[in-house]
Amino acid sequence: MIPYVLAAIISYLLGSIPFGLLITQAAGLGDVRKIGSGNIGATNVLRTGRRELAALTLVLDAAKGFAAVLIARYFWGGDTIFIAAIAVFLGHCFPVWLGFKGGKGVATFIGVLLGLAWPVGLIFCGVWLLLALTQKMSSLSAITAAITSPLFAYAVWLWGFPIDGSKLAATDGLLALLLVYNHRANIGRILRGTEPKIGSEKKATEPG
């Protein structure tokens, strides 16, 4: 059990590093939680008007998901990679340092998928990009990519990727459910037709 406990603790702590908050504070922009949706992810950082800071937040949030899986695979292997994937995602979304109020997890989800099975991560990005270009809604793109990713996870295993397909799909599915839960306010706005579109100047005024 020790490897699983270590993988969970280390991954959660890694995931709980609030890069969006640290980056915006270092840039002299104050507390990013006080603008837009109030979370610490790249989308809300973008609302500061600093695209480079949002891009850096995206990369670092994805990197911690990727790193957590790689650390678990290197030191312990086996099913610890799935424990690490779940723990790092929970750390990002519910960081103890910020009263368990973190980001929505899209970038970290991508990093986790790239670490577990890189083709699934690339497919997630492809689905997100396709919908972002056609529907112009980041939240809808992320939700759709997350919901469909367990199917692609299992398909990648069937095509011969060296990983337990059922455990990969189950882990992917659990994280997808959490991501959808984190976007519950966005789903409400999508249904009401008030969700801001990519490139619009309209700011989110509801939590989430």
What does this structure look like?
The structure is a single chain. The model is unreliable at 201-208 (pLDDT under 50). This protein has helices spanning 2-15, 19-26, 42-46, 51-75, 80-93, 106-116, 118-135, 138-158, 165-182, 184-192. The chain is mostly helical and 208 residues long. The protein has one domain. Helix content is 69%, strand content 0%.
Number of strands: 0
Annotation field: number of helices: 10
Cα Rg: 16 Å
Classify the secondary structure makeup into a structural class.
mainly alpha
Uncertain stretches of 5 or more adjacent residues? 201-208
Series of secondary-structure elements, N-terminal to C-terminal: HHHHHHHHHH
Biggest pleated-sheet summary = none
Question: What is the element layout, followed by pairings?
Answer:
Blueprint: H1 2-15, H2 19-26, H3 42-46, H4 51-75, H5 80-93, H6 106-116, H7 118-135, H8 138-158, H9 165-182, H10 184-192
Short key terms for the protein model shown above:
208 residues, mainly alpha, disordered C terminus
Provide a compact summary of the structure:
With 208 residues, the chain is mainly alpha-helical.
